[in-house]
Amino acid sequence: MSVCTGMQLDETREVWQELIPGAQKTYERSSSTPADAKKRPTPPSPPSPGPGYKYAQVVSTPKPSRNRMVLRSGAVNLAKKKVSRRSQRYLQDIFTTLVDIQWRYNLLVFALGFFLSWTFYALIWWIICYTHKDFEHLNDDNWTPCVQEVDSFTTAFLFSVETQHTIGYGSRATTGECPEAIIIMSLQSVTGVMIQCFMAGIVFAKLSRPAKRSQTLMFSRYAAISFRDGRLCLMFRIGDVRKSHIIGAHVSAVLIRRRITAEGEVKRWMRQILPYYQRKLEVTCDDVGDSVFLLWPSTVVHIIDSRSPLYNMSAEDMVREKYEILVLLEGTIESTGSSFQARTSYLPADVLWGHRFEQVVSFQRETGEHVIDYSKFDRTVEVETVQCSAREFQEYQRVVRQLSQSPTFSLNSGANLAGDLLRISSEPSHLLQLDADFPSDVSPKNSDNPSA
């Protein structure tokens, strides 16, 4: 039940329609897909207030969703172009480059690293034998070659593989006739160990990357806005399906939308098509701040107060404006000790005004266990919620609170004054002057005489 319906005043419902701008419109939206909302007919007029009356919501069909900056999978939808010396920059950090590339290219580099080294040293072994004229004395029993049983490039390649991996089949071996052969054998042995360590490190680093850990973390399909403890709040849900927990998990949220500076400049991104100005959203999980302990799905809350960038946005503004809410979850994997980051985003079509999430945790007495039903993870239920902005709602509360302090106060007598005040507050040019237009010390005679 919202704050207004809990005032236990019979006349509040009549005043409500007068005070809240846009409350006479209707808006049908549920936890189903936004496309379903377009098909539903709009009632010509709202029902009359009465017992159990659920205040109608604002009709506003979201515009077609723009491409996300962060996809639901967490991938960043950005492409980098015209980077100066791009190849050189990537080669300077070759280890990270090899870890980041796709598996097929990683395995190709892994195989080429060995084959090229085998071929390179096979060529050196063939040149040593050729310069020592071993190929001219293949059948001479009195001739001592640099490498025994090497009579062609093929046998030189086989000897290169045996030397680098210390296979040692027993037929081919170096002799003391050529000192350069002994030096090359030592260098190839060291080179082979280095290549093995480097390639094994790349494969291990790629296998142990925590990038896939985010696949077992769940973000709710929709974000919801409704009352919590008498304040409008933006809420979304996070869950972890693994039994191994995340250590030190922290959640943060960022609002990306267009911002016009005092100089009138519009900050845009990517060929001046979409805005990118970032505003931090203060989020909390229960009373533990931005820390999240994901034993069960947790609801993360952003209180829409005067510090929030959503403070002046009504239900209609939330579906009409262009913005994107990025959600980041960072922590350490308990089983590997690796840090990771999971991401998702919410567009205007993903924000449900006047909804809250269903309960997913229940207790089974038969087994004595707490059970999490993930089929309800994305489900929301519709609740009574005002459709004005948080600023206008606070102004409404202030008006009612100040007028109710008068002993001669009547909601009917003060409705016109409060209604005119909040109708003025819907105009952006008067929004900042609202406190000046309505003094804090409202006397009883002023509350009874709207023209005073």
TrEMBL record:
Inward rectifier potassium channel C-terminal domain ranges (all copies): 217-396
Keyword rRNA-binding: no
Keywords per UniProt: Ion channel, Ion transport, Membrane, Potassium, Potassium transport, Transmembrane, Transmembrane helix, Transport, Voltage-gated channel
InterPro entries found in the cross-reference section: Ig_E-set, IRK_C, K_chnl_inward-rec_Kir, K_chnl_inward-rec_Kir_cyto, Kir_TM
Predominant cellular place of this UniProt entry's protein: membrane
Region (Disordered): 22-53
TM segment ranges: 107-128, 181-205
Lipid bilayer topology: Multi-pass membrane protein
Compartment(s): Membrane
Residues forming coiled coils: none
UniProt cross-references to Gene3D superfamilies, sorted A to Z: 1.10.287.70, G protein-activated inward rectifier potassium channel 1 (2.60.40.1400)
Span of domain Potassium channel inwardly rectifying transmembrane: 72-210
Family: Belongs to the inward rectifier-type potassium channel (TC 1.A.2.1) family.
Protein's name in the database: Irk-2
Species annotation: Cordylochernes scorpioides
Record lineage: Eukaryota, Metazoa, Ecdysozoa, Arthropoda, Chelicerata
